[in-house]
Amino acid sequence: MTTPTTTPGDVRDVRLAREGVLRIEWAAREMPVIRRLRERFAREKPLRGVRVGACLHVTTETANLALALRDGGADVTLCASNPLSTQDDVAAALVAEYGIPTYAVKGEDNERYYRHIRAVLDTRPQITMDDGCDLVATLHQERPEQLVDVIGGTEETTTGVVRLHGMLKDGALKYPIIAVNEADTKHLFDNRYGTGQSTLDGITRATNVLWAGKTVVVVGYGWCGRGLASRARGMGAQVVVTEVNPVRALEAMMDGFQVMPMAGAAEIGDIFVTLTGDINVVDRHHLERMKDGAIVANSGHFNDEINIAALAEMAEARRQVRPFVEEFRLGDGRRLYLLGEGRLINLAAAEGHPASVMDMSFANQALSVEHLVRNAGRITLGVHRVPEEIDHEIARLKLRAMGVEIDVLTPEQEAYLASWQMGT
């Protein structure tokens, strides 16, 4: 329904707002870095009057980021970056309680999803914040006349960064974007620890499966795959990794996991999870080899890592057997189970990453936006890493919040590291 408040937006039910407020406040307890940034932003107003258009997963953690930007003076408008990742009570709270225009409904269809993206673009954002590059791609393809307004943008996830590099290579990208995903305080923690834990959580909530003794096939050994493989092993599973990158495959082998081609893994796996960012990494010929009862899930950004069309063609019958669990019965009697429509299962069936790890990711977002605004017109066209000083400052703030102290270099040590004359 469209909310009756004075704040524009499109959310499921404004009456969910109070529940959303309580969960946003709960998440804030685990986000001390964002809290400190929000306090500073409220004092300094570094984003005063800047129009920020954000296409992100609408979760409790994202709400705390949006509030920090709002308190910094920005005019923030938000939409969902995935049709199944919205927390409806959070979306309601953002509109009804916090005055942030939000366009997001869990389970929205493709038409509504892009209508929401266009609603954000209608505000003529000066800063784009994206998670998967749909907002940026739509802006470039459909609204090129608005590009003159844009100072720069940020991108949250691996898939989006890959798309941005493709745009840059094709000469399509028209303004600078900071790849938040490339920050050490993002991918080393969010991708590894956040995805590892939240993917297990989503699959467990959807299926109530016992991990101990299962053969879990982790498709892709990037930082997300590393995190999931480690946590699945910790739950007692036998973990098989499939990879196309020889260095990552070698790393998985030396980390103690079994490595093999997907064709072989398809025959022995109980649970398959894709985390590659590529298309059809679980394809028809893999599905044809899977044993009865195999569970297939995706924790990558888009729902094209599993060839769902092929699975549907193979099935004689299909039915929903649990929330976010669809059974496909094949002609030979085998049953395969697809979770969360093939969308990222940690947000489709669970709550996404724990707030503590998103604290660092979204601190990168907030400080990158501030950096873009302060340096408007001086950042070259391209896809840039988060400045190292921002990365290190976030790590220092997180350590301080955790009560952890570390050493600092002495002047003698700094001089030694800067010298080439001193040797053996």
Tell me what the structure shows:
With 424 residues, the chain is an alpha/beta fold. The chain folds into 2 domains: 9-186 and 353-401, Adenosylhomocysteinase-like (Rossmann fold); 195-348, NAD(P)-binding Rossmann-like Domain (Rossmann fold, 3-Layer(aba) Sandwich). Helix content is 44%, strand content 16%. The protein has 17 helices and 16 strands. It has helices at residues 17-28, 32-44, 60-71, 88-96, 110-121, 134-142, 158-169, 184-207, 223-234, 246-254, 262-268, 284-287, 308-314, 345-348, 355-374, 388-401, 411-418, and strands at residues 9-10, 51-56, 75-80, 102-103, 127-130, 152-155, 177-179, 215-219, 238-242, 258-259, 271-274, 295-298, 315-322, 325-330, 335-339, 383-385. The strands form 2 sheets. An 8-stranded parallel beta sheet has the order 1-4-3-2-5-6-7-16, sandwiched between helices. The radius of gyration is 22 Å and the shape is globular. It starts with 8 loop residues before the first strand and ends in a 6-residue tail after the last helix.
